[in-house]
Amino acid sequence: MNEIIGRVRRELKAASSESARITGLRFFREEVNLYGIRADDIRRISKANYELIRHLSKQEILSLCDILWNSGMVEETFVACMWSEKLTGQFTPDDFTMLEKWVHNNVSNWASCDTLCNHTVGDFIQMYPEYIISLKRWAVSDNRWVRRASSVSLIVPARKGKFLGDIFDIATILLEDTDDMVQKGYGWMLKAASQADQKEVFDFVMNHKSRMPRTALRYAIEKMPAELRSQAMKK
Predict the structure, then answer these.
(1) Which residues, other chains included, contact 162 with Cβ-Cβ below 8 Å and sequence gap of 6+?
(2) What is the DSSP letter of 211?
(3) Contact (Cβ atoms closer than 8 angstroms) between residue 80 and residue 65
(4) In this structure, which topology does domain 99-235 adopt according to CATH?
(5) 1-86 CATH choice from 1.25.10.90, 1.10.645.10, 1.10.600.10, 3.50.50.60
(6) 59 falls in which pLDDT band (50, 70, 90)?
């Protein structure tokens, strides 16, 4: 375990640069810890090292992911997300405990939140839809990233026309949230849902726009025809 983690960290540090770190910091308003690595290099390092561990059990790989999450380094969380995503076909309901732990205890910025939730958590929810009730509990958390996670976990299934009623439930819970990162998250979820269910999402927006923050509204209608966007933006 220590050997592979040490290898990953050495390779991440070798691929880093101060200029990339400074550039990366501009994408965050909150304090984050970055090596400063290009996305292509992170994917390369993740893929190469996964080949060295793919023979391990699911739980052993999740334990490695947990170590990376606990480091607090953004690029290490990306590697953890890429590895956990490769396990989604093997997930059982018991694995939700680990995913929820990462969301509640380790996610501390939008990039780690979205990378984990768009794929690993979203894939899990598609396998075990009964866990959407947990996302609705996340939506009332005091933690902004947990609330954002409740919506961005449904981005991919939303595009496929799945879980529309639950998407509206979560959007309703988050409707008047004052945090712009949460507003952008649930607005993005509605935008994704509009790709398969445009009329239903438009109707939802029109019925709630008097209470919906403009940030969320703009995200929700972004993919709609100009005429519908114009109607939705009228006060």
Answers:
(1) 126
(2) T
(3) yes
(4) Leucine-rich Repeat Variant (1.25.10)
(5) 1.25.10.90
(6) very high
Q: Note the pLDDT tens digit of each residue in 77-100.
A: 999 999 999 998 999 999 999 999
φ, ψ of residue 213 in degrees (nearest 5) = -55, 145
The amino acid present at 190, given as its one-letter code, is: L
Task: Write out the two tokens for 209.
Answer: 């726009």
The answer to whether 171 and 204 are in contact (CB under 8 A) is yes
How far apart, in whole angstroms, are the C-alpha atoms of residue 232 and residue 226?
A: 10
Question: How far apart are the C-alpha atoms of 18 and 73, rounded to whole Å?
Answer: 15
Residues of the chain with CATH 1.25.10.90: 1-86, 99-235
Nearest to 11 by CA among 59, 57, 47: 47
pLDDT > 80? residue 140: yes
Q: Which of 205, 217, 135 is nearest to 170 (CA)?
A: 135
The DSSP call for residue 33 is: B
Kindly indicate the confidence band of residue 37, based on its pLDDT and cuts at 50, 70 and 90: very high
pTM of the predicted protein model? 0.95
Q: Which DSSP symbol is given to 9?
A: H
